[in-house]
Every structure is written in C-alpha cells, then in structure tokens.
Amino acid sequence: MAESEHDETAAASRAHANGLLVRVAAGDHGAFRELYDAVAPRVHGLIRRTLVDDGLSQEVTQDVFFEVWRSASRFDAARGSAVSWIMMMAHGRAVDRVRASQASRDRDLRVGVRDREVNFDPVSEAGELSVESARVSVAMARLTAIQRDAISMTYFEGLTGPELAARLQIPVGTLKSRLREALIRLRDELGIGATTESTLA
Q1: What are the distances in angstroms from CA 64 to CA 70, 86, 158?
Q2: What is the pTM assigned to this prediction?
Q3: Which of the pair, 78 or 43, is modelled with greater confidence?
Q4: What domains can be seen in the chain, in order of their start residue?
C-alpha cells in the first residue's frame, strides 16, 4: 500500500472512531459495542504491559470502558482522536492501580512490623517456627507427588491459578479440585480442625 493510501486509511479509521464516540455520548449502545470491539484489544494490551496480571488487566479494561461510556460527552475531537483519548484513560487507570497496590502493600508491611514488635520473643518464635516447619515437612511428605506440586507451586512459589494450570497443562477447574484435595489431605495430616476446609469452599 502506498504511503498516501495508508495515511488516508488511518485518517478514515480515526474519523470513524471519533464518530462512534460521539454517538456513544448520545447513548448509542450499538456504537459503544462497535467501539469496544475495535479498541478493547489495544486497551487490554496497554494495561497488561503495566500490570502484568491478566485477570487484573481485564478488570481494569472493563473499568476503562465503563468510564468511556460514562464520560464520552467530555471527548473533544479538536484535542486528539477518540482512540488516543481512550488509551490515555487506560494508561492513567493502570498507573493508578499500580500505585494503589503499592500503597496497600506498604500499609500491610507497616501493620505487620508494628504487630510483630509487640511481645516478640525471637527465641520462642524461632523454636515454634522450627517445630511447625518440621510438622509441615512430615505432612507434605505423606502427600502424593501431584498434591505436593499443587501446594508447593501455589503457596511457596506464588503462582496464580492460571499460571499453575498452564505449567501443569491442565484446566483451571481441574487444578482447583486437585488443590482442594491436597489441602484437605494436608489438613488431616496436620490434625487441623474442619474450619480449614470451610475456607476452601
């Protein structure tokens, strides 16, 4: 395609998106669906590069398009294209989510440090941790290899459900069932009461 033809196509695409957003501002649901289908993959890609986690990225993508629907009337074509306006909104939302997550981690860390400073006996704590660690090791050794892998990769390696399912090459639903069985078996080996099982429902 010649450069002039490419420019014309790009200009037509921008004009079409601008027109869709104007119609969205007027409450046109069909225009919103068409705009979503055209732009959502790019929005999700931008957010995913910032947040990494796909589930969280999908959630923020939905938030962005909710905001697009709610505030489409504020779009000004004289200041840029509809796609640029939406992408700037997506970038802002992704950055806000990163900052919120960091603030939450910092707050949890401060609370954790404060709580551990109260009545902390390092010798007693070390002894309790050693005994508990030994109990867990013995209990883990009694699990099947599949059960050990499910627990280890989820709780010790910090993998998410989709990440672990992909590594084990099994459906997420199968993974959840396998992990539940492993936790129930581990609970029984450790002699923990039934309240632990209720948290897995």
Answers
A1: 10, 8, 28
A2: 0.48
A3: 43
A4: 10-105 (1.10.1740.10), 124-198 (1.10.10.10)
